[in-house]
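Appendix B. One record, verbatim.
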Amino acid sequence: MDLPALPKVELHRHLEGAVRLQTIIDLYREAGQPLAARTPEELAPEAQVLRPMSSLAEVLTYFRVAQEAFRDYAAVERIAFEAVEDLANDNVRLAELRFSPDFLCRPHGLDWDRAMEAILGGVQRARDLDVAVGLIAIVSRSYGIESAERTVDFALRHREHLVGFDLADDEINHPPAMFARVLEPVRDAGIPLTAHYGEAAGPEYPRDAVQALGVRRLGHGVSVAWDPAVTALVVEHGVALEMCPTSNERTNAVPSLDRHPARQLLEEGAPVTINTDDPGLFGIDLTHELSVAADVLGFDDGELRRVTANALEASFLPEAVKADVRERHFGWVDEA
């Protein structure tokens, strides 16, 4: 299949990890604090992860440069618009962008609600690009329970503008049960849950995310494959896996790309999807990840159709939106 030309679905893409290097340079310069790097090529070693690192924690340190680019509301709107523009340029026709209001706003003391308005403004400005976009709010676990509670309140205030809710960053020190009470209002409001578990920790973490939190999807979920009982649990509950092969290699979630369990889990009945995670941070796009799935993981054309169909089914966007996008762009997933 001609992967660049295929319409695509992206369920797991962080806004903070999707910032263009040139945009980072521009925003620092406009703020009167120009970086030493004058070109994207010069900035890349400081702001991108282009090889495997020792751990997720090490990879997260590379977010600092992009995080500091969210300097004002105009910058937030620009980054949101360009994120959708990049999706359109890669022929992604349905996408979910996730962001942590605390992580995004903290460096420059931005107001969370005004930042949300700016994100919505950027997405709205990109409305003619034919990308159906849903937004997901994230709890940054390492900021503590008070931040998590504040993020829940934020999500409830902006319920009409969000399609889902997520937990992210440090996994090992923040097991699912820690957030069961905090997330009760989100569940009660009917906001679908996904959570980053099974990326840096063992299979007990995704197991507990399914059982204690009632997640409908798992961010990454690599370690689901390490325990047949957890694999069976995910299959039984129809929990979609937002798998990101290049990210998983570079965070050391898998020892090498060719040992990534996405195809194994798909064969065992898990609703696997393929995503980028942080395309700006890793220097990739979704075409690249689908190429990895085909060329390295051994996905055939039928399996590429299945993961795309899985993503359409698992998306938190309204059913009417998904039906419209599927009718207009995704006839290829039903081809024999």
